[in-house]
Here is the input.
Amino acid sequence: MRITLASLLAVFFLGCSVGPVAPGDLSFADECDTPGITRCDAGVPQTCHGGAWTGGALFGKCASACIHSVEKNEAFCALSSDPSPACGGGSGDRCDGGTKLTCRDGFVVDQAPCAKACVTFSSVTVFCAESKDPAAICGGGVLGDTTKRCDTDGTLVSCLHGWALERSICATGTKCVVSAGGASCSK
Here is the structure.
């Protein structure tokens, strides 16, 4: 077991609440001996690499919270130090009302408010759209359909899986034109 000045000072100032220092526990050390282990240091996720902690210069300090999972040996930034019930303890994208969330181990790591609606398609694809319902102009709910189409009023509509993501009015002097590759605004 390696005892560092930092770990001794931590035990002295924090008392027994720190608990015993386990072999390989480098949470208070500036150097590391076990490649691949992770930690949070002053709000910065770090990984042991080549005998030194890396990650700080690459990622910088977390804006809100640095989360360290000893069980999964990972450190990452999250928007809160508390897990979000909307994440359900899991990882991946999901909707929380009108907001698209990206979760990691139950913590929200990114969020994007949707202007109109957040849609979950086939339980794994989450995106912001014009409506919770598929749009007739977009063909309705086909996985992988990422086309642009012209609406009856000449508006260019970007579609994803049958939902309208956004509508664009073509610039003056152009109109919405359908071609083999989809639709676009052209002269």
